[in-house]
């Protein structure tokens, strides 16, 4: 009856194998393990190399409620299993395919082909759609230690992917029914549906063709280099390549799901008709649902590809709305390298303008009340007696036209987190105006009732409905005033700076040596032709 790969599994080794699902480390071999397997298995179990049924009998003896399906290739052993009342469902495990889903696969496959059997078990488990599957396997230790073949290398990759626990045991069959001194590996892994998806994802990404990669690089590198540091260009290219592959695979799966649902609905509708309407007919998957799902996918992946999240944080609410409108239009476009290049180029070409619009938006909000009566002035350096009302000083007072209570001032948890949302929005917009000129920290320390500070500014909330703000970075504030002065034509033009000593003296006195830095910033915007 015995063939070269037939080694009936001793109960002690089965016990030790099943214990791996509970603990990575077993204190000592075969010690204190009795009954531990009662905690490990449930539902339906597959034994794909059943032999004469040692593992099947052990499981049914220990856990009578479990249903066990057995597979055995040897006709004599298969007949023996059937005679013992076991459920034999197939002969050759390597050709076994099923719609049935298993909670566990427990196996002692032929040592000469342990890698192939374990790979097939993992493949079956990975295709399950309703439940995770635990796999317990006993293999020749060399199958794990000596990765000389393609199948063994792929097995090693999958064991790593599923965080397998592996324990090497010597003399495991020394006292068994059929003796051998070969070292074995006890393996436990849990194939989770999300891990199977992760593996599908990895294989999809790895499958990106060289032609596609070349296409992406050829069309997008130039656009990337205008706003990404040179050393980061390849990293972003790799990200974009990966995201395109993800998107394409997701669309294929959505389409396949829709097609299956559609075929099912059509078929059940047909057989219901020919059987007098007595077959249950599910609701059809509408084309509207299909289009909406694809639209959501496109919108999500455009945001990921264009990497707008970090940029968005730097914009005021008004500028964010503008960018969102652009992204909304983008979601109508299909995702491919040509469209990616076009949108990268368009959005990033306008990124400096968007940042500066945040600066101007904040400036207008803070100075709107003091500027009204002087709205017709052109140059504040030669048109007004004082400049203080027409630029942001070290302190500003902003009215909210309401009253504030203790909770509005952060009393709920004694921190900035619980400050009234309107005040927080105003403070965040102030901070975003500093983004083009310095790194900005959005965390605040409480220093008194309704009073908070960080390295950019300090502010205090008053119950009468005003917020007083003191700026801690005069150099960056100066840059903001210069940018906005240029925007509103309050400052000398470049021609005046070249030809009018009074204009030059005014700019040097008001803004010092910051002008060069600001001009460098403005040179990235459409104001370039105004810069001397």
TrEMBL record:
Q: Per its record, what are the GO molecular function terms? A: methyltransferase activity
> Which ranges form a coiled coil?
230-257
This protein's UniProt keywords: Coiled coil, Methyltransferase, Transferase
Q: Name one GO biological process term.
A: methylation
Describe the location of the DUF4942 domain by residue ranges.
295-488
Q: What is this protein called?
A: RNA methylase
Instruction: Give the originating organism.
Output: Cytobacillus purgationiresistens
Its taxonomic path starts at: Bacteria, Bacillati, Bacillota, Bacilli, Bacillales
């Amino acid at each position: 009856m015995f063939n070269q790969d037939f080694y009936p599994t001793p109960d002690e080794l089965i016990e030790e194998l099943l214990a791996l699902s509970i603990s990575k480390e077993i204190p000592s071999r075969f010690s204190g393990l009795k009954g531990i397997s009662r905690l490990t298995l449930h539902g339906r179990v597959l034994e794909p190399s059943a032999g004469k049924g040692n593992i099947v009998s052990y499981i049914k003896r220990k856990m009578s409620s479990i249903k066990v399906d057995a597979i055995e290739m040897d006709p004599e052993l298969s007949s023996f299993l059937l005679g013992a009342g076991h459920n034999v469902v197939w002969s050759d495990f390597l050709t076994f395919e099923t719609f049935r889903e298993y909670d566990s696969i427990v196996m002692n496959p032929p040592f000469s082909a342990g890698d192939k059997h374990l790979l097939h078990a993992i493949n079956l488990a990975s295709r399950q759609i309703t439940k995770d599957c635990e796999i317990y396997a006993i293999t020749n230790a060399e199958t794990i230690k000596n990765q000389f073949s393609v199948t063994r290398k792929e097995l090693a990759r999958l064991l790593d992917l599923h965080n397998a626990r592996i324990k090497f045991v010597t003399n495991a069959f020394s006292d068994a029914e059929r003796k051998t001194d070969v070292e074995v590996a006890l393996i436990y892994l849990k194939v989770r549906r999300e891990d199977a998806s992760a593996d599908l994802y990895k294989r999809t990404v790895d499958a990106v063709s060289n032609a596609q990669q070349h296409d992406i690089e050829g069309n997008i590198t130039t656009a990337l280099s205008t706003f990404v540091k040179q050393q980061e260009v390849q990293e972003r290219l790799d990200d974009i390549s990966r995201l395109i592959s993800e998107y394409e695979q997701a669309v294929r799966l959505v389409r396949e799901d829709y097609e299956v649902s559609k075929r099912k609905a059509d078929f059940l509708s047909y057989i219901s008709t020919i059987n007098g309407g007595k077959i249950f007919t599910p609701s059809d998957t509408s084309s509207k649902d299909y289009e909406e799902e694809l639209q959501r996918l496109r919108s999500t992946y455009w945001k990921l590809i264009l990497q707008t999240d970090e940029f968005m944080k730097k914009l005021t609410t008004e500028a964010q709305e503008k960018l969102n409108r652009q992204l909304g239009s983008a979601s109508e476009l299909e995702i491919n390298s040509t469209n990616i290049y076009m949108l990268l180029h368009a959005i990033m070409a306008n990124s400096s303008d968007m940042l500066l619009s945040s600066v101007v938006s904040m400036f207008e909000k803070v100075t709107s009340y003091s500027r009204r009566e002087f709205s017709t002035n052109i140059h504040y350096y030669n048109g007004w007696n004082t400049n203080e009302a027409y630029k942001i000083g070290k302190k500003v007072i902003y009215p909210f036209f309401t009253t504030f209570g203790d909770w509005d001032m952060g009393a709920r948890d004694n921190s900035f987190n619980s400050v009234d949302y309107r005040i927080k929005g105003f403070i965040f917009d102030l901070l975003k105006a500093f983004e083009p000129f310095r790194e900005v920290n959005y965390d605040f320390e409480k220093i008194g009732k309704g009073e908070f500070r960080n390295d950019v500014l300090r502010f205090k909330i008053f119950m009468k409905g005003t917020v007083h703000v003191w700026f801690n970075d005069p150099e960056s504030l100066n840059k903001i005033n210069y940018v906005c002065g240029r925007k509103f034509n309050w400052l000398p033009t470049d021609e005046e700076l070249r030809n009018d000593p009074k204009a030059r003296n005014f700019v040097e006195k008001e803004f010092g040596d910051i002008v060069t830095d600001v001009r460098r910033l403005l040179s990235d915007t459409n104001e370039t032709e105004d810069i001397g």
